[in-house]
Amino acid sequence: MTHFNLDRMTDENLCALVGREPGAEDFLFLRHIEPVTRFLMGRYQGIEHEAVAAEVLLDALEYVGRHGVTKSFRALLRRVANQYGWKAKQRADARGQYETPWDEARESGRAADDLERRVLEEVTLAQALQELTAAERAFLLLRYVDGLGEAEIARQSGKSVSAVKSSLYQARRKLRADRNLAEFHHHERKTTMQGWFLAGSHPQNYEIGVVREGTRTGKPSASLKSKGDVSEGFGTLMQMFGPDKYRGKRVRFSGQVKAESLARNAALWLRVDGPDQSKPLRFDNMTDRPIYGTSDWRRCEIVLDVPVESTDIAMGVLLAASGQVWVTDLQFEEVGLDVPTTSSEKEQPTEPQNLSFEA
């Protein structure tokens, strides 16, 4: 589409087009890459300013694609830039303590095979892209180069939105593997669960695993745990699937949840997505009944309607900040309309109410 004059648009208007109008995302990127680079140069020394600026822009644009228009795109960029800049400075300062990798290895007591992993990290992006399937490569380029949203990619390719999301996840997963082979596969052997994956705002701060002994009923339980002291963001163990079987019905996601030393909170969550990927059709993450502190096994449940226009269903368990949470006996089932929904968002009434202003 060419009837938009992107050059004359405000940031906020461009944000509204991200994921819908090809070129909007690229235009925002090019407009702000130099200012963000200068911002980082003025505050954080000893880091790769342009590379960090690119990460800042990509993260901010992904946020806009997920959550819709932000009131001030520049304010969002400053906030993200400070987060990335500080983390890059911490990494740079840590590297500067040692003259060579061998000095660092001797200081920290790491074995020689840890250093070999650094060689594997030098696999180039071009080589990694060639190892993707044709669909994964195409979807990745359409999403992050052409700036198309997942729904638009699905429409153009004739695939479901779930299939597009799955392919994008697998592509990103493979790229991470190729750029950090040994460490990634070591981690995957310990944490991978078929059908589930680790996500969230800061997934790098969390780890997942399966516990097969000492569980509530003898069945395996899944664990989501922070890596040390985490003060911001959240991690989630989640999965996504198509809604065909449940469209027009009411469903319940339930399970037993146990928590230990939560700095903030944990919860089960369930989301039903529609054609507009920036706004879910139905969502409940137990904000009105969260799990705090340390608690023994308790049953939690979420009940939501699945509208006929649904495109995806996502569910999981989340952990905010530090702590550990376990889940077991998970169930996902259709329920009758006599079972009330649990979402704190009230559904819009189908007819006028209380026209006589009675108490």
Give the arrangement of secondary structure elements:
Blueprint: H1 11-17, H2 24-41, H3 49-67, H4 73-95, H5 101-108, H6 112-120, H7 125-130, H8 134-144, H9 150-157, H10 161-179, H11 181-191, E1 197-200, E2 206-211, E3 221-226, E4 234-241, E5 249-273, E6 282-284, E7 291-306, E8 312-320, E9 324-335
Helix pairs in contact: 1-2, 2-3, 3-4, 8-10, 9-10, 10-11
| The named CATH superfamily of the largest domain | Galactose-binding domain-like
Largest sheet: 9 strands, antiparallel
What is the CA-based Rg, rounded?
23 Å
The SS-based structural class is alpha+beta
Number of separate domains? 3
CATH topology-level name of the largest domain: Jelly Rolls
Distance between the termini: 53 Å
- Secondary structure tally, helices: 11
Low-confidence stretches: 97-124, 179-191
CATH class of the largest domain: Mainly Beta
Mean pLDDT: 77
Strand and helix order: HHHHHHHHHHHEEEEEEEEE
CATH architecture of the largest domain: Sandwich
Principal-axes geometry comes out as globular
Number of strands: 9
Classify the beta-strand content into a percent band.
Answer: 15-25%
Helix content: 25-40%
